[in-house]
Amino acid sequence: MSKQNPEVPGDEELAGMSRDELVRLGTRLDGVELVEYPDPWPVKGTRAEKRAERLVAFWFGLSGLSGLAFVAAFIFWPAKYVAPGEEGYTMYSLYTPVIGLTLGVAILALGFGVLLYTRRFIPHEVAVQERHEGGSTEVDKATIIAQLADAGTRSTIGRRPMIKRSLAFGGGVLGLAVTVVPLGGLLRNPHAQSTNEDGLWHTGWLHHGEEKVFLRRDTGDASEVELVRPEDLDAGAMETVFPFRESERDDHDALVHALKRADNPVMLIRLRPQDAERVVKHEGQEDYNYGDYYAYTKVCSHVGCPTSLFEQRTNRILCPCHQSQFDALQYARPIFGPATRKLAQLPITVDPETGYFIATADFNEPVGPAFWERKS
Ligand code: FES
User: Fold this and answer.
1) Nearest atom in ligand 1 to 319's CA
2) What DSSP string describes 187-212?
């Protein structure tokens, strides 16, 4: 080791120095002047010190309890959709606030605990240091290790088992809470409480027996049923429609459910005649349209936002979430943005008896984003 600085001790002298001496040597060699280096609790075991310790432990404990509450709510809280007015709606509507609140409190409480501990128990030295260039010498390495060990000792964490345990509890549970979110989908069977095991594969347009499924608009009142006829749309227009069955006309809950079910909304588009001439149909969907009328799901194939915008001039369907665009003239295939799959097309025709639009079948593929069992 070269001794460029006369203050640098030899190896033998270095080995004989105490940690405190090494700390001060390190700061001196680094051109650091320790102006103040006070012990926050010079008299050990005072009531004030114990009070501060309990306060820190309280926040870590609160973090742990809140983290546990989050994990419990995430796993056990009833998260299945319940329509307004139905039994269980209050619990369902509280699901998101509860998991948000519990996770938020867990993170905040842990932060408060760390902050308080730093303020109450870590020495607040005042030091001035000059910068140096080049790599670290052996002396620098030895002294910095001593400084770090000294910081650990002076933080007194080693002799505060209550804080150590509460920190381990809070940090551990929070870590568990963070882990359980991505693992949640694997822990819980999404179909466990479903009355429809095929829920992801079918929508409310699924036919039950021979009953016709009409296209209705949402007027804001579920009981006010307005069906849609071809004359209702001008060329270039778009309307959002939902499934309706005559058997449900007097069933308010069923009518509300049909309007609220997430995978039910469909865009009914009437192309302009000059545009309709340029349509390219997807194999197997050649008879899905009725003249110039085409119906596509409103659920984006990217991550499921409503693709609510139809641009008449370009015949593009736009998803406002991440700007995916789909070509309504080419079976709604994606032409821009992150979506990689076409929008599912609903096969429609006009009921010869009533003159209203009906769906001839459910979609021929799941709507919306990919999911575990989906292969395409
Ligand atoms: S959800 Fe539509 S582009 Fe992302």
Assistant:
1) 2
2) HS-TTTT-S-TTTTT--TT---TT--
| CA 74/CA 188 separation, integer angstroms | 10
- Ligand 1: which atom is nearest the Cα of residue 323? 3
Question: Which residue has the least CA distance to atom 4 on ligand 1?
Answer: 322
pLDDT-based confidence at residue 56 (cuts at 50, 70, 90): very high
The predicted-structure confidence for 31-53, as pLDDT tens digits, reads as follows 787 778 788 888 888 999 999 99
Greatest Cα-to-Cα distance within the chain, rounded to the nearest angstrom? 106
Q: Which of 126, 111, 124, 117 is nearest to 157 (CA)?
A: 117
Residue 338 Cβ < 6 Å to ligand 1: yes
What pLDDT shows up at residue 2? 45
Q: DSSP secondary structure string, 317-360?
A: EE-TTT--EEETTTTTEEEESS--SPPPB--EEE-TTT--EEES
CB-ligand 1 contact for 305 (6 Å cutoff): yes
Residue 318 in contact with ligand 1 by CB distance below 6 A: no
Q: What is the pTM of this model?
A: 0.57
Amino acid at 24: R
| pLDDT at residue 134, rounded to an integer | 77
Q: Distance, CA 367 to ligand 1 centroid (Å)?
A: 13
Neighbour-count burial of 294, counting CB atoms closer than 10 A to its CB (0-12 exposed, 13-18 middle, 19+ buried): buried
What does the pLDDT look like over 86-121, one tens digit per residue? 888 999 999 999 999 999 999 999 999 999 999 999
Count the Cβ atoms, other than its own, within 10 Å of residue 206: 15
Does the CB atom of residue 225 touch ligand 1 within 6 A? no
Per-residue DSSP letter, 299: B
Atom of ligand 1 nearest to the CA of 307: 2
Ligand 1 center to residue 55 CA distance, Å? 46
